[in-house]
Amino acid sequence: MIIVRKAMPGDGDALLKTTRALAAFQGYENAVKASAADLENALFCKDPIIGALIAEEQGAPVGAVVWHRSFSTNAGKEVMYLEDISVLPAFKRKGVGKALMQATARVALERGYDAIFWMVLPWNDVAKKLYADCGAEFETPHDICRIKGDALRRLAQ
Amino acid sequence: MIIVRKAMPGDGDALLKTTRALAAFQGYENAVKASAADLENALFCKDPIIGALIAEEQGAPVGAVVWHRSFSTNAGKEVMYLEDISVLPAFKRKGVGKALMQATARVALERGYDAIFWMVLPWNDVAKKLYADCGAEFETPHDICRIKGDALRRLAQ
Questions:
Q1: pLDDT tens across A8-22, in order?
Q2: First-last CA distance in chain A
Q3: Window 17-76 of A, Cβ < 8 Å to B
Q4: Mutual orientation of helices B96-110 and B125-133 as an angle, nearest 10°?
Q5: What is the pTM of this model?
Q6: What is the ipTM metric for this complex?
Q7: Residues of A in contact with B137 (CB under 8 A)
């Protein structure tokens, strides 16, 4: 029996666990620098730009979605972006991902959004099948560009 | 002589023009439903999540960047996402894109971000060369998934 609920203060450790599980699955676990407090501070500050849903089985966290407010210049309004959709390895293929996506759709409608979007690694066929089952359309793959740290400071000079 | 400045009230039409130019270049001009007022409302509301920079030549807009606040669960903090990086067709290859990227990097540092990220279409070699010149790293291409409208409402049921 899977329950999905909105994250509450105290859920930082559970969210860090699901973030780390997703990073490990995608091969960049060492990139996770966040602390549980970082995640709670962002979730429970005044006017947060992020939100999170936690899936539980018998009271234990088994997966999570972390979303953030995004903006589409084409639509001229806010849309919801899914930053993390994570199911702990031992709980995969039990419907947790679907339950999370359904609950996320409810939050999106509650907030007046009419679209949610996210990225998926091209080789992740299990996830892509889930998303297709949820009604997702797949758009042209894009490259992701990032400028950070010293490169960002050099560019700004 | 290219000047890049932050968007101000009254710049909605200029931003809509650059948004439309980018959409036309990428082949989805019909997807632009935003109005100039939508863009200004989002930019100049209380606690906006978006910002914009406008490049001008002799006082006329020739390009723009629209960015929004994003959140990295890996970093545990906000980062800057570039939604649109657009140069009007007649002003391409004159350094406008580079000037916009430099000004964007300054805004990112001003706001305490240490990373900016965005997506680029894999075939857009001119843009990719500019981004590489700016110090960007290119990450694994991702598929983009979107659930909207009726599909979103069905999923929420």
A1: 999 999 999 999 999
A2: 55
A3: 19, 23, 28, 31-35, 38-39, 42, 47, 49-50, 66, 68-76
A4: 50
A5: 0.95
A6: 0.94
A7: 145-148, 151
